[in-house]
Write a structure and sequence with these properties.
Blueprint: E1 4-8, E2 12-18, E3 34-39, H1 41-51, E4 55-63, H2 66-77, E5 81-88, E6 93-99, E7 105-110, H3 119-124, H4 126-130, E8 134-137, H5 143-155, E9 160-162, H6 172-175, E10 180-181, H7 185-192, H8 200-211, E11 216-220, E12 226-229, E13 238-241, H9 254-267, H10 272-286, H11 299-307, E14 311-317, E15 323-330
Parallel strand pairs: 1-4, 1-8, 2-6, 4-5, 8-9, 9-10, 10-11
Antiparallel strand pairs: 2-3, 6-7, 11-12, 12-13, 13-14, 14-15
Helix pairs in contact: 1-9, 7-8, 9-10, 10-11
Length: 334
């Protein structure tokens, strides 16, 4: 039986334009081509988890418009249960995305119907949250709704995986309900009130977040992989999980691919460091295709990439974030 993953969050239509670089303030650039692509961090994670083999239910809202129709149809085509998506009088959420030739992106959100997701939405879906093997959340819907959802999960002992993006200060009450907090290094530093930096600073940010009450912290580091902090069953404070080198085309949804693959692997019983390796493979593959949901890889593609390097280097980090030793983790696939 595949793991049942409930995603509570946003659905957007992405309006994507490619440009030679990102414009400076007051500057107009000629770009192209332009595409409309289904997106939204919540919907991205739902599609990605379904492609990884999870049984997925999406909770959120779209408008009663053509974009809403398209987003629901796209989720259903990926095998996601869309019966818990509300139709709002507000327009469907939009994301304006500029992708540079280097593959980096800038995003401006118009929340639309996502702003109508509320605590009531969460409580109306208590039954499906209670039956989940894991609850995935992001911060593109109102914080009050996210807090209600994690409270419901805590009430029913459902593990909570939170992607704190877009980053904002979070109440301790919310953090105490989070089983796995998965920010990128910039989000981790902001949440912890620390400067952004590589290696040592990411470890310090993770340690600070653990002290704030989070269950475990996994910091995504882009092309450098991921930092898994405070690994259960070991004496180590953190592991650096290496990523896979790819030629990046568009980094949109790479983080969502990581979250989904991590969630599916974790709910299948894999330990956090191994689940992070699955996430790194999925995130790397997502960078090789333009657009959010079109880039999300299948389980077969992720497994193929991981089989290319069956023995994985995991670097142990001392509490201050400095390398201490290296060990080997041998991947197995059923």
């Amino acid at each position: 039986m595949p793991p049942h993953i409930v995603v509570f969050g946003s659905l957007n239509m992405d309006l994507v334009i490619q440009a030679p670089r990102h414009p400076r303030p007051g500057e107009t650039l000629t770009g192209g081509p332009f595409r409309t692509i289904p997106g939204g961090k919540g919907a991205n994670q739902a599609v990605a988890a379904a492609r990884m083999g999870g049984q997925v239910t999406m909770i959120g809202a779209v408008g009663a418009d053509g974009f809403g129709d398209e987003l629901i149809a796209n989720l259903a085509a990926a095998g996601v249960d869309t019966s818990r998506i509300d139709r709002s009088p507000e327009a469907t959420g939009l994301a304006l995305i500029t992708v540079s030739e280097s593959g980096e992106n800038t995003i401006v959100l118009a929340p639309g119907a996502n702003g109508t997701v509320s605590a009531r939405t969460a409580w109306e879906n208590e039954d499906v949250i209670a039956a989940a093997d894991a609850l995935l959340l992001q911060l593109e819907v109102p914080l009050s709704a996210v807090l209600a959802a994690v409270q419901i999960a805590g009430r029913h002992r459902v593990p909570v995986i939170l992607n704190p993006a877009p980053a904002r200060p979070l109440p301790v009450e919310l953090l105490h309900h989070v089983s796995y907090l998965i920010p990128n290094e910039h989000e981790a530093a902001l949440l912890a009130g620390l400067p952004t930096g590589a290696g040592e600073e990411a470890t310090r940010a993770a340690a600070a977040l653990r002290e704030m009450g989070v269950g475990q912290v996994v910091v995504t580091l882009g092309e450098r992989g991921a930092l898994v902090y405070d690994v259960p069953g070991t004496s180590e404070s953190a592991w650096h999980v290496a990523s896979f080198p790819v030629q990046a085309v568009d980094t949109t949804a790479a983080g969502d691919a990581f979250l989904a693959a991590f969630a599916v692997a974790l709910t299948e019983g894999k330990p956090p460091a191994e689940a992070a390796r699955w996430g790194c493979a999925a995130g790397a593959l997502a960078c090789t295709v333009l657009g959010a949901q079109p880039s999300l890889p299948t389980r077969a593609a992720v497994e193929e990439m991981m089989h290319k390097e069956p023995v994985v280097l995991l670097t142990s980090l001392a509490p201050a974030g400095k390398m201490r030793n290296v060990c080997m983790l041998r991947e197995t696939h059923g």
